[in-house]
TrEMBL record:
InterPro entries: PurS, PurS-like_sf
A Pfam family the protein falls into: PurS
Keywords per UniProt: ATP-binding, Cytoplasm, Ligase, Nucleotide-binding, Purine biosynthesis
Family note: Belongs to the PurS family.
Main location: cytoplasm
EC number: 6.3.5.3
Subunit record text: Part of the FGAM synthase complex composed of 1 PurL, 1 PurQ and 2 PurS subunits.
SUPFAM superfamilies for the chain: PurS-like
Pathway it works in: Purine metabolism; IMP biosynthesis via de novo pathway; 5-amino-1-(5-phospho-D-ribosyl)imidazole from N(2)-formyl-N(1)-(5-phospho-D-ribosyl)glycinamide: step 1/2
Domain of life: Bacteria
Annotated segments matching region Disordered: 87-110
Gene3D superfamilies: Phosphoribosylformylglycinamidine synthase subunit PurS (3.30.1280.10)
Protein's name according to its UniProt entry: Phosphoribosylformylglycinamidine synthase subunit PurS
Amino acid sequence: MATILVHVMPKPEILDPQGKAVGAALPRLGFDGIAQVRQGKRFELTVDGEVTDEVLANVRKAAETLLSNPVIEDVVQVKVVREGGCGCGGNGGGKGHRPAPENGAKDLLG
């Protein structure tokens, strides 16, 4: 099994009221210095077997037709996190489920 992440974001020309609401709330809560917020969607798809080009093509097609609304959203990323699991680095012990940081990024959630 492997996990594939799909990230979907509103198209740049589309208003993002949720992102604007979050952006307006941040300074009120003491989180200064954030210029803009855009809110999107993230899907974690666990697939059986090896991730082949055909599997990735099927996931991309699903992302473009079902997981996103192509009129107002773009599929910005489809990537395999890790063969054999989600990539969270956990052992299934119930301590949360999120992928490990990549490319030297800091995991700000702990």
